[in-house]
Amino acid sequence: MQNSKKLAERSERVRYEQNNRDYLRSGYLRHRLPFMGG
């Protein structure tokens, strides 16, 4: 029971980090594009 709870917490954290990374990447690209002549 506790093991599955730990697993759920880990998957939740992984999903959060992936969303955060995608958000940062899209924000970064939006920031960089004007300087790259895009």
Describe this structure in words.
With 38 residues, the protein is mainly alpha-helical. The protein has one domain (2-36). The chain is built from one helix and no strands. The longest helix is centred in the middle third of the chain and has 31 residues, at 2-32. It is rod-shaped, with a radius of gyration of 16 Å. The model has no long low-confidence stretch (mean pLDDT 81).
Provide key terms for this protein.
single chain, 38 residues, 82% helix, mainly alpha
- The total strand number stands at 0
Give the overall shape.
rod-shaped
What can be said about the biggest beta sheet?
Answer: none
Strand-pairing-aware structural class: mainly alpha
- Spell the H/E element sequence: H
Helix content: over 70%
Taken together, the total number of domains comes to 1
